[in-house]
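C-alpha cells in:
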C-alpha cells in the first residue's frame, strides 16, 4: 500500500503537468482590421483575447496590406507597415504569437468578384472560361464556389512568394498560414497545363513548393485540413473534406506542416487521423458552442490516452471567425449568452479548456 501511495505521489505532478500542457495552442483566427480600425483591434487583443488565454493569432491578411514588393496587389484601405508593427508589438507584450495568412491556391474569388491576384493577373486563373456571375448563387451549373490559380503557371510563384516574404518580414513571423482550403477547381479539363493530371499530386506539389520556400526562411507552413480528408470514405462530404480526389496528397507532403482541422457542424475525430499520419494538428470550431465543447473534450481525450509520440501531435484548439473584428465585437455586445454563434462558441471553447486545466485534466 505504501508503494502504491508513493507511486501515485510521484505520478501526480506529471499528470498535472500533462493536463496543463494539453492545449499548447489556444488560438483565434480572424481577418486583419482595415487601417481605420487598428485601435479597436488592439483593444480587442488586450481586453478579449489575452484575458481568455489566447496565445496564437492567425491573422487573415490577404491583400489588406500596403505591399511594397507588389504594390499592384494592395487592397482598399490597407494596413501600413507602421500599423502592422503596432499590432506586432502589442502581441509581443501579450505573449500572442501572430501567424499571418494569405490564401494560396484556392479562394481566389468570392461570389461575383475576383481577389486582387486574379484581378491583376487574370492569366493565373485555373478556369478563365468560367465567368463570375453578376448574381452569385449556390449551387450553380459551373460548380463555382471560389476560383483557384493554376499551380503550374510559370509566373505565379514569383508573385505569391514576394507576398509571402514581405508578410513574414513585416509580421516578424516564424510561421505562415497558406489557407489551401475548399479548392474545387484543380486539374481542370480546360487548363492547358493541368488537364489530365492527378489532383492529389497537383495539390501536394503546390504545397511542397510553398513549404520549401518557407523552409528557406526558417518558417513553418500551416494549412486548413479539409483537402486531405476523403469526403466519400468518411461521409463528411465536399466542404469539410474533399470529393475531388485531393485526399491522397496526405501521403505526399512533409510532416512538418501544421494542420488546422476545421469542423463546424459536428466534432468529427479527424484530428486522430492527422496525428496517426504524423502531423501536428489543431482543431477548429466556428459557431456552435456544443460542437466546440465536444471538440475540446475530444482533443483532451486524444492527448491523455495516446502514446507520447502521438500525444505530441495534438497541439490544441483555434476559434475561427469569418467576418471582421468589428462584427465580432458587435456580436459580443448583443449576445445574451444563449444563442449559438461565434461569440458563444468562443466562450464555450475557452471555458472548457480552462475547466480541464484547472481540474488537472479530469473531465466531469
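Residues out:
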Amino acid at each position: 500500500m505504501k508503494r502504491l501511495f508513493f507511486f501515485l505521489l510521484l505520478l501526480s505532478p506529471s499528470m498535472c503537468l500533462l493536463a496543463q500542457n494539453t492545449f499548447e495552442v489556444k488560438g483565434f483566427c480572424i481577418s486583419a482590421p482595415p487601417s481605420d480600425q487598428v485601435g479597436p483591434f488592439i483593444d480587442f487583443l488586450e481586453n478579449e483575447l489575452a484575458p481568455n488565454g489566447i496565445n496564437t493569432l492567425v491573422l487573415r491578411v490577404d491583400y489588406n496590406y500596403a505591399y511594397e514588393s507588389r504594390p499592384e496587389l494592395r487592397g482598399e484601405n490597407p494596413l501600413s507597415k507602421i500599423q502592422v508593427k503596432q499590432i506586432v508589438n502589442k502581441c509581443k507584450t501579450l505573449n500572442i504569437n501572430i501567424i499571418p495568412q494569405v490564401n494560396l491556391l484556392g479562394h481566389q474569388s468570392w461570389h461575383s468578384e475576383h481577389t486582387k491576384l486574379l484581378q491583376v493577373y487574370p492569366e493565373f486563373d485555373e478556369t478563365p472560361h468560367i465567368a463570375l456571375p453578376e448574381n452569385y448563387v449556390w449551387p450553380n451549373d459551373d460548380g463555382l464556389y471560389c476560383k483557384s490559380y493554376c499551380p503550374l503557371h510559370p509566373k505565379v510563384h514569383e508573385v505569391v512568394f514576394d507576398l509571402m516574404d514581405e508578410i513574414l518580414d513585416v509580421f516578424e513571423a516564424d510561421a505562415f498560414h497558406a489557407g489551401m482550403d475548399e479548392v474545387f477547381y484543380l486539374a481542370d479539363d480546360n487548363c492547358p497545363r493541368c488537364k489530365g493530371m492527378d489532383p492529389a499530386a497537383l495539390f501536394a506539389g503546390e504545397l511542397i513548393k510553398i513549404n520549401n520556400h518557407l523552409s528557406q526562411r526558417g518558417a513553418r507552413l500551416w494549412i486548413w485540413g479539409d483537402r486531405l480528408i476523403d469526403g466519400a470514405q468518411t461521409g463528411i462530404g465536399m466542404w469539410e473534406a474533399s470529393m475531388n480526389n485531393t485526399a491522397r496528397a496526405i501521403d505526399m507532403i512533409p510532416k512538418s506542416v501544421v494542420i488546422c482541422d476545421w469542423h463546424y457542424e459536428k466534432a468529427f475525430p479527424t484530428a486522430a487521423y492527422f496525428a496517426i499520419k504524423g502531423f501536428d494538428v489543431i482543431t477548429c470550431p466556428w459557431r456552435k458552442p456544443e460542437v466546440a465543447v465536444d471538440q475540446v473534450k475530444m482533443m483532451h481525450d486524444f492527448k491523455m490516452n495516446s502514446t507520447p509520440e502521438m500525444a505530441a501531435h495534438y497541439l490544441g484548439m483555434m476559434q475561427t471567425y469569418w467576418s471582421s473584428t468589428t462584427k465580432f465585437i458587435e456580436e459580443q455586445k448583443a449576445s445574451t449568452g444563449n444563442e449559438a454563434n461565434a461569440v458563444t462558441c468562443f466562450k464555450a471553447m475557452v471555458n472548457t479548456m480552462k475547466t480541464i486545466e484547472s481540474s488537472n485534466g479530469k473531465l466531469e
